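BUG-562 | component: ligand-complex export | severity: low

The export step for guanosine-5'-triphosphate jobs runs without errors, but we want the raw record kept on the ticket for reference. Input record follows.
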Amino acid sequence: MSGFPVENIRNFSIIAHVDHGKSTLADRLLELTGAIDKTKNNKQVLDKLQVERERGITVKAQTASLFYNCEGKQYLLNLIDTPGHVDFSYEVSRSLSACQGVLLVVDANEGIQAQTVANFFLAFEAQLSVIPVINKIDLKNADPERVEKQIEKVFDIPSDECIKISAKLGTNVESVLQAVIERIPPPKVHRKNPLRALVFDSTFDQYRGVIANVALFDGVVSKGDKIVSAHTQKTYEVNEVGILNPNEQSTQKLYAGQVGYLIAGMKDVTEAQIGDTLHLHKHPVEPLPGFKSAKPMVFAGMYPIDQSEYNNLKSAIEKLTLNDSSVTVHRDSSLALGAGWRLGFLGLLHMEVFNQRLEQEYNASVILTTPTVPYKAVLSSAKLIKARRAVQKNMMFIDENRVMLKYLFPLNEIVIDFYDSLKSLSSGYASFDYEDAGYQTAELVKMDILLNGNIVEELVTVVHKDKAHLVGKTICERLKDSLPRQLFEIAIQAAIGSKIIARETVKAYRKNVLAKCYGGDITRKMKLLKRQAEGKKRLRKIGNIEVPKEAFIKVLKTQSDK
Ligand SMILES: Nc1nc2c(ncn2[C@@H]2O[C@H](COP(=O)(O)OP(=O)(O)OP(=O)(O)O)[C@@H](O)[C@H]2O)c(=O)[nH]1
């Protein structure tokens, strides 16, 4: 690694609105630089998580070190692929701290979208060089000239700086690498100073402990060095250092300006937290500023389905939050659900992805309670907006077809399904992003949901006074649809204090699992009864009413439909 002087290193990130082609461009860059073989099967190579492959979106930033020869000089290009969805912008801002420049990818058909603007400003504020890349020029409806004009107007970047490519076909991708070398400056670092390494990402490996992704701002780190975590003040010996190419490749040493991974026998997830600074034992240094902690926007309670799983779930949450440090965790307990946690997420997709990762990567199954928000604000468009108590702040025409609207919103009006409604009202053309605008006073009430007079803790919500009736009615209807009939009648009620504002009734019924089982085979009957008993474990008793987990989920997901 010493063969790469600082002036031959470029650290850059790819940022874009969701689906504009970051991961596809990353695949082509990996191929061009020989990091992966050129085959038709390279699809989003850096999206390694199962949840990313299933959903086709990036949720986790990934690093790859690429070697590239240009005019006789060998360059080391460290590429960080970042997520596009608004819920994961914390990943983007962290990744940018290890970079000097970005490729801002814009779809040649869709043009500038909300997340393009938000990500541009993250890069701009971090004073990074921005290379605009107009992607998907192969599409029939592509209009790169229009997008160039948008970029000039909104970001003040001359249109001749835009590079037009098709990441899918590989058209003109080589000139992106040329631009990275020409337009992004090498990192400003000092190799002669003592080691100062920023932990910008971290994962937990069952066998090797914590694997920290580091960016070296000063000095050198070698296998065998004694290093200290500025955060915990604990000392470790470096077992392994290396680069990600994109798989781990150990290298004995890493030098200032380089980005790679480091393993130092940290066995506990509280070690090597994201944002930590590592330095040599014999040369303490001033820690790097680290990262602003993420501001959670959506809160939900999380409980093990079975309390005996508490410790396993605790350890799974700890390991996953090491990798996703934007989730906040506080212990909590509920009369109904036992011991659990109150988790803070950056949005609903983030919450779903976290839940899915817990299930897929740690085999955990959990109950999530109604998501709530710490009342804040947002931006976007039209009729939809009035119904959601929004106040317009700003309007700017991006070109003759596109307008950027800024609104102040109560956060709880948009966290759940605003995005979907916006997409369907605009036939998919509108896009949306938000940032926190502080707390505002509002007329809110606490609404209880009761089953035969017993409050269902999980469904207690805070709603705006004017919407209480509608929300209460929806929840009652949803519950009615998803509650299995029981031997007695069930009254489902929504109440504010002692005032009932909505009611539904589930009629009595008895489910006889043996109904279709004529005649004798006792083992078959036992099997059916056993399965019924197992099913009941997934039920939660409220008063004498059994509520299946699915009923909660159904209500949680639909509560803000109104
Ligand atoms: N026609 C065409 N399609 C492309 C091109 N580049 C990407 N795509 C397609 O656009 C879709 C999204 O591409 P991705 O690379 O996953 O987009 P992304 O920006 O990484 O998306 P997130 O990671 O979810 O933010 C995929 O179906 C790609 O095959 C291109 O140059 N031309």
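Assignee comment: Attached the raw record above. Residues 16, 18-24, 44, 57-58, 83-84, 135-136, 138-139, 166-168 surround guanosine-5'-triphosphate (CB under 6 Å).
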